[in-house]
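#struct-help
A.M.: can someone run this one for me? Single chain, 342 residues.
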Amino acid sequence: MNILIVKLSAIGDVIHALPVAYVLKKKYPDAHITWVVEPTAYELVKHNPCVDEVIIFHKKAFKSWTGFKENYRPFANLLRQRKYDISIDLQGLFKSAAVVFTAKAKTKIGYVDMREGSNLISKRIVGNHKNGHIVDRYLDTVKYLGCNTEDVVFPLVNTQEEIDFVDDLLIKENILNQKFIIFAVGTNWINKCWSVENFAKLSDLLSQYKIKAVLIGFGKNDEQKAQAVMNLARVNNIVNFVGKTSLMQTARIIKLAKAVIGGDTGNLHLAAALNIPAIMLMGPTDPNRNGPYRQMENVILAGHECDGCWKRTCAKNIDCLASIKPNQVIEKLKRIELLKDE
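D.P.: on it. Structure tokens below:
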């Protein structure tokens, strides 16, 4: 049997879909499972023991008519090298529907929240968790195929090279065997970001408990935020790893942390998948759907009437997460027994 999973991006979304590969491989151990993914999230599936083949979809290459003409046939030929019995659209958008249509699997199914006409290509599967967490919505899709979805596993495997690289990095900063808490300083929505001032204040507060703050993130925006946090902090208590690690190297750092703090973003979902406390600061998105999986007690809500608006920018022109204060995070860490008063 040949099975095609189409979950292209973003990082958090691909993390949420990882248990699907696990339950499929458990149900169909002899099946060949292929995953189509965009480059940003490729690392999450390239060493996945439940995935036999990874095909990278370069969306940018298809944006122009010239690019489409040049790239469609080679991509289609690659997809059609293997005749798929089942395709599973966990993206539910036009781009994923195009991939599924091109692959021509015998059976095409997709998850409950299909949009942009994707439901015209794949059968929309509505399960018991249609209003629940996105991980469970994805799992409902393959439950339709007879998979047992009670055992939820996120197959995230580090190579020895990644482990050694991170351990060397931590040794250089003298924190390999020290207590540290990670700050995920950036998100891809402006109103899902906590301010650099609050991260700096939180770092100062953590210094009183002899716990280092480690900054993680990717790209220029995160690098600028990290530098601002360091400039604003009054106590030298920060280690800055933003832009210094790959996605799976970051996963290794998270595995060694006491907790990860930040907005609704990929690194927080990575922490939850690794069973590390993920203190998620939330406002515009809904914890019921997007909170840290099986860690709803670790959510701190902004507390606005419009929480869960799903708007990338605030219609009221307010800093959504500004209502969440560093002391609230400290109290949350105490409640889950990660911090203790002297």
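A.M.: thanks! The chain has a mean pLDDT of 93.
D.P.: also worth noting: The chain has twelve helices and twelve strands.
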